[in-house]
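Quick one: PepSY domain-containing protein from Aeromonas molluscorum 848, structure tokens please.
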Amino acid sequence: MNMIPRTFLPICGLLASLSPLWAGAAQTRLEMAELIRLLVAQGYHDIREVELNADRFEVDTLDKEQHRVHLVVDAHSGKLLSQERE
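--- reply ---
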């Protein structure tokens, strides 16, 4: 006697086929070198401190006009979330 309902196996197959999509949904965090390359490409330099807090990098650096700035950068996308002059 088969105890597994007929719908169970197709559901398992569907879930197995979707698992690579779920794995891709988990974002990876930027490496430090990637973060620095992104910031330098945007004109920031003399990066003094980088701190990772949750999903954000907090960076103390100089901008193009030589002003000290505090940046908050998304740790996954590299998007600049905020910039504050010190």
